[in-house]
Amino acid sequence: MPVNLNRQSIDDAHERISKYIHRTPVLTSRKIDSLVGNGTQLFFKCENLQKTGSFKSRGALNAILTAKERGDFKGVITHSSGNHGQGLAWAANMLGVPCIVVAPNDSSIAKMDAIRAYGAKIEFCEPSMTSREETCERLSKENGYLLIHSHNDYDIMAGQGTITKEFREQVPNLDVLLVAIGGGGFIGGISAYVKETNSRIKVFAVEPQGKEFQNSLEADRNLCDSEALLDTIADGAKLIRVADKCFPIIYECCQHRVFSVNDEELANAMLIIMQYLKVTSCGKTVKANEVDLLVRAFSLGKLHHAMPVTQSIAIGAAAAIPGTLVNLAAGGGKKNAVRIGHPPGILKVGMEVEEKDNEWKMKRRK
Questions:
Q1: Among 48, 33, 14, 266, which Cα is nearest to 165's?
Q2: Which of 90, 200, 236, 254 is the most exposed place for a label (fewest CB within 10 A)?
Q3: Helices 154-170/7-17 angle, 10° precision
Q4: Are 186 and 180 in contact (CB under 8 A)?
Q5: Which of 212, 228, 263 is at the close of a domain?
Q6: Is the pLDDT of residue 203 over 60?
């Protein structure tokens, strides 16, 4: 494991950032435990309640603070389609550091608005990883800004690893950690801390179907090197590529068994946590001709201006139809209680809900 990513570096990161971030809560649900069975107890570390709405603010803040300790720099730059860009923009704004975010030109309008609101400048590029990286590198050289990668960075991983430090203080007797994997920075930081503090805890990667990270673990080398993005409702885990700095850490610190989940399973899980934990997780972003209702939009049974984009419209008809997600969210009642922000275009509901065996089930609408 790299000498600059270990228990000490993660403890140092936590000391740096703790006064700026939330110590996010851990939620439990007996109902969800009963669905799993076998006496299993689940604990949910709610980083969706973190600053900017995701764990990304931890790593971004630690990276900037660490850079300030090392010496002077003019500003920071990154490429991101959403959460990392928001996290870096927030951290830079709070610390008085200029920030540029390179974003693909098909990014969510809502996420771009949030990045601008934190004072960052956005530079758009073609929606490919090559274009993002080339644009970012060019602007970094032109402006003399420090490039802070979203996951292929040890300071970023150390910041994400602070989640584990908090989690273990909140729930001392954890046995297993299930951690989402995209580019690898999140699970890299988390598993590195576990490896040095309590190797009894088993860390498993959970991926969207199609990533096939299991093949890399079995081959003893990183096979996830495609620039393509997965077609999944897990918007924050679309990357197929696992970063070069992340793979060796994951290989050493995680179990060599990957759990792969499809969109229907993801959708059902999101519905379950909405029903029983009353919180939401990040789903698919809004396109001009589609609204997928699995966005970070649910609020205790109602949706109000869920995506603050160019236009807000009421979905009264859908809310009145039993069996739709909107109807469920509105409690099967007031049609006007459900509102979703949507740019001009065709409105398409991406998922539907049905009741079967006294349980709500969600599936992709064909």
A1: 14
A2: 200
A3: 80
A4: yes
A5: 263
A6: yes
Number of domains in the chain: 2
Cα separation, 123 vs 101, whole angstroms: 6
Do residue 251 and residue 159 come from a single domain? yes
Q: What is the mean pLDDT of residues 269-277?
A: 81
Residues labelled catalytic: 56, 81
**Average per-residue pLDDT for the chain:** 80
Same domain? For 316 and 180 the reply is: no
Measured between alpha carbons, how far is 134 from 132 in angstroms, rounded to an integer? Answer: 6
Q: How many helices (H) and strands (E) does the chain have?
A: 13, 13
Structure tokens at 321: 């139809």
CB-side neighbour CA atoms (13 Å) of 113: 7
Full-model pTM: 0.79
Cα angle 170, 6, 44 (rounded to 5 degrees) comes to 25
Tell me which of 231, 263, 295 is where a domain ends. Answer: 263
